[in-house]
Amino acid sequence: MSQDTSTRRPLDRRAFVGTAGIAGAAAAIATPAIAQANPKITWRLTSSYPKSLDTLFGLSTQVAKRVSEATDGQFQIQPFAAGEIVPALQALDAVQSGTVECSHSLSSFYIGKDPAFAFDTSLPFGLNTRQTNAWLYHGGGRELIAEFMKGHNVHAIPSGNTGAQMGGWFRKEIKTVNDLKGLKFRIAGLGGTILARLGVVPQQIAGGDIYPSLERGTIDAAEFSGPADDEKLGFQKVAKYYYYPGFWEGCANVSFFVNLDKWNGLPAHYRAVVEAACAEALSHSVAKYDHSNPDALFRLVAAGAELRAFPQDVMQAAFKEAMALYGELAASNANFKKFYDSWLPYWRKEQIWFRVAELPYDAFTSSQVQSR
Amino acid sequence: MSQDTSTRRPLDRRAFVGTAGIAGAAAAIATPAIAQANPKITWRLTSSYPKSLDTLFGLSTQVAKRVSEATDGQFQIQPFAAGEIVPALQALDAVQSGTVECSHSLSSFYIGKDPAFAFDTSLPFGLNTRQTNAWLYHGGGRELIAEFMKGHNVHAIPSGNTGAQMGGWFRKEIKTVNDLKGLKFRIAGLGGTILARLGVVPQQIAGGDIYPSLERGTIDAAEFSGPADDEKLGFQKVAKYYYYPGFWEGCANVSFFVNLDKWNGLPAHYRAVVEAACAEALSHSVAKYDHSNPDALFRLVAAGAELRAFPQDVMQAAFKEAMALYGELAASNANFKKFYDSWLPYWRKEQIWFRVAELPYDAFTSSQVQSR
Questions:
Q1: Residue B242 has what DSSP assignment?
Q2: Whole-prediction pTM
Q3: Which of A138, A359, A369 is opposite residue B366, by nearest beta carbon?
């Protein structure tokens, strides 16, 4: 948009003194000046989540609310739940094609197009929530993602996170890595690929079909998210062993996808508002999960869920396969390699640092409270 | 500010059809309409930090930049470093009195006025960074702080965090809690009060005077922040034992203080921009520390620093005294009690939850990397 002085400084009275005279100048300048200040814009947002997942769908309502407030109601974003105008897993395509201007979705849903999408969300055994933000904001992550997403006609902004997820619901206990052989486990993404190397038979089942499949025994186990989201699906009634941690999603960064042309066409100050609103939504979503997961976990345990930690040999075997898979993908996929060469040394140094200050602090304070 | 339709919908052409005729209507409406959109406002911000602490002073430059960008340059915040116009520890007073409109500072600097200020920053052995955000944003923390700060004529917005800090620099090793007796330790706030109950002699020394005091042996130890900030002061040359964790600051929430009348006088959409910019700065500051602390730690160790974990009996004894102190303060101070009654049960449930998903995940991944 034009950035001439009269429109950049709308209060500058000199703008109203023109050779065309007061009236002409006012009429000529006032309209673009007002338009420049806060033009009226309306966008449609398609979420990959249903309204029932209040924290994830809430990212969209929160960003829309903040953007409207910050632009004095001039920039309106209308959120639609998964399926209302676009199916959950076609959100990226809808933004690419311009069917909608923007979306809240998970890049890892699209690893079928290119496994490199995973770096925008998280990798199994990867950076935790804070380490992911460090890599994205200060470690060069966002620059790599911007370059990659440009090839898909999308601008991606970090806009939410789940924190470390649970390991899911199992009908039988997992005592050793051998108990994974032949296990029909509802799990998607790279986590499924890794566990398949240990004998698991990954199942792709939509959220609403998981419960009946577990109840009928069509599947032996299912992972979904954390206590606050899992509680809504009632898994504890049909698979009582609730495992942790969800090592395939130590966090999940939710992206705000914007059609690249729509993004570039936005006034600079609206782009600034959207960036700040997304960063705020990310911070609030982690806080909301950290706020709601404890009480949900206590209710699940009271309702019969039995907490179990994955055996160390399961963790070690899965970690070994994860690192092997990443090496193979980096060797065969240039996009994956470009991300991995930045991500792996970053992951290593963060692990060492967190051993020093954060983990000893958390380990001590958490050991001072008795379980319920 | 007025919210009439012609100014709320600046692009509505009907606004230009008035009984006074085009010229009169345009002149009459254009000016308030533009003023309504983005009025010109300039504020002064006094930071409690010097420019050398780039992450902490950087909170002010980042918020100022984002607020300017989001208001198309109309709302300007001018950051001043500690001492430029107001001494570091008088930032709150300067905002209360209206000497400046706003400040980045630490509420715990002001526990001399009322120990309840500590809840806005952190308590020794208290909520970690994520747990603090959960309590502030979703656990009722911000509402309690707003009510408390109103009594000090201030609106406080969470705007930065250091993450878990280090335990500081010691000239001699601490092998048992008895080694704390008579130890002249540069430490401020409630941490100093707690350690004094174990025989430590807390010292109040300004940042710039710590190094010579350690070198001369006037003091035996000093805590400051984390590796990225500590490195700038060169402590490893005069006190080689670098202890962790800094159990008196498991995190430190930095507040953006705004004079209450100035805050209430801001247009609603400017308040929205400031809130979003502060949340963004908080998230980016944690990420910046998580990004810069590892490399700083590696350089400090290469320069001769010897990492040591505080002995368990020191942690246990300090924890016992901390809880005793909080009980005494809650019994004698109504403000402290009001915060503590919300904070303590919240702290307990967060400790249990973090034992389940986050800590087992972090403990496993961090154990898979060899130290340098």
A1: E
A2: 0.91
A3: A359
Nearest CA in chain B to A168: B357
Domain residue limits, chain B: 39-163+251-290
In DSSP notation, A250-297 reads S--EEEEEEEHHHHHTS-HHHHHHHHHHHHHHHHHHHHHHHHHHHHHH
pLDDT in tens, B152-210: 999 999 999 999 999 999 999 999 999 999 999 999 889 999 999 999 999 988 777 89
Q: Is A77 left (phi over 0), alpha (psi -120 to 50) or beta?
A: beta
Locus of tokens 């230009």: B16
Task: Note the pLDDT of residue A188.
Answer: 83
Q: Does the CB of B115 have a partner CB in chain A at under 8 Å?
A: no
Chain A residue numbers with beta carbons less than 8 Å from the beta carbon of B363 are 359, 363
Q: Report which of A113, A86, A45 is spatially closest to residue A255, judged by C-alpha positions.
A: A45
CATH H-level superfamily of A39-163+251-290 = Bacterial extracellular solute-binding protein, family 7 (3.40.190.170)
Q: Using a CB-CB distance cutoff of 8 angstroms, which residues of chain B are in contact with residue A247?
A: 361, 364
Pairwise CA distance, residues A369 & B352, whole Å? 7
- What kind and span of H or E run contains B258? strand B253-259
Which residues 284-313 in chain A show a CB within 8 A of chain B? Answer: 284, 286-288, 290-295, 297-298, 307, 309
Contact criterion met (CB < 8 Å) for A34 and B30: yes
